[in-house]
Amino acid sequence: MYRMKKRISTGFVHVLLLSGALLSLFPFYWMFVMATNHNSAINQVPPAFLPGNQTVENFKKVLSNVDFFGSMWNSFVVSTLTTLGVLFLCSLAGFAFAKYKFPGKNILFLFILLTMMVPPQLGLIPQYYIITKLDWLNDLKAVIVPGLIDAFGIFWMRQYISSAIPDELMDAAKIDGCSNFRIYWNIAVPMILPAFSTLAIIKFMYMWNDFLWPLVVLREESVYTIQIAIRSLMDNYVRDYGMILSGTFWATLPLVFIFLFFNKLFIDSLTQGALKS
């Protein structure tokens, strides 16, 4: 009887998880369906629920209206360089906050946490003023450099390093004559790879999907990121939703590949605390 109840409860949990997964995947499937159908099929009642035969035609329309691959490359450069900078700088700062004592440490960390509560829209005007003074308008540096440091990244790394790296290991390294940076590079970095993967996924997705700031500082089509390029597909008087969703679908695929690539480390970082406890 106990085994029967356990099987029923396990089966119910599996059904619940499967239902949640299907509901989560449905918007992506619906976007693919719309990207493969003609605009008339999208507007019909009831709308199409199966993929159509307009995949190539809709994507050709995207290529004829915007520099899709050029914008994808710009987004890839911005997202990759920003992510690498955040991983290095935020892990350094998080390592210092987690394992070293220095004057004003707690107050400084508190100020970093307070910046997370400020809406990013409030910083548009001062950031734009700085970018114009540096003559970085219509340059990818205007998007890359402001994103090289992240308050959440520092907080995440500080919390992870505090529990992942024993103080005794650092003391042993200091006795062996290791410098602070060598302790970070040779001891801390290999032990916090799951935290790196989680922060990399979050930051890459944020920069890839960022729209407002690139829209403000990037005015020329040659430096458009993919989100601005997709937005320009909606400038026509008659909106072709098949074309728009085709561009959106293909622009989303790199995020799927990034998540699948870092999937194992991402799950490890989320479950490590539970396993330790």
Key phrases:
277 residues; mainly alpha; MetI-like fold; 15 helices; flat; disordered C terminus; transmembrane; transmembrane helix; transport; cell membrane; MetI-like
Write up this protein:
- With 277 residues, the protein is mostly helical.
- It has a single domain, classed as Orthogonal Bundle (MetI-like fold), CATH 1.10.3720.10.
- It contains 15 helices and no strands.
- Helix 3 crosses helix 14 (241-261) and helix 5 (105-115) packs across helix 8 (151-164).
- The two termini are 32 Å apart.
The helix tally amounts to 15
Largest sheet: none
CATH class categorisation: Mainly Alpha
Total beta-strand segments: 0
Structural class: mainly alpha
Low-confidence stretches: 273-277
Outline type: flat
For the record, the CATH architecture stands as Orthogonal Bundle
State the share of residues found in helices, binned by percent.
over 70%
Mean pLDDT: 87
Approximate strand percentage = under 5%
Task: Give a quick rundown of the structure.
The chain is mostly helical and 277 residues long. The chain has 15 helices and no strands.
Which helices and strands appear, and what pairs or packs with what?
Layout: H1 2-35, H2 39-43, H3 55-65, H4 68-99, H5 105-115, H6 124-133, H7 141-144, H8 151-164, H9 167-175, H10 180-191, H11 193-209, H12 212-217, H13 226-232, H14 241-261, H15 263-276
Helix pairs in contact: 1-14, 3-14, 4-8, 4-11, 4-13, 5-8, 11-15
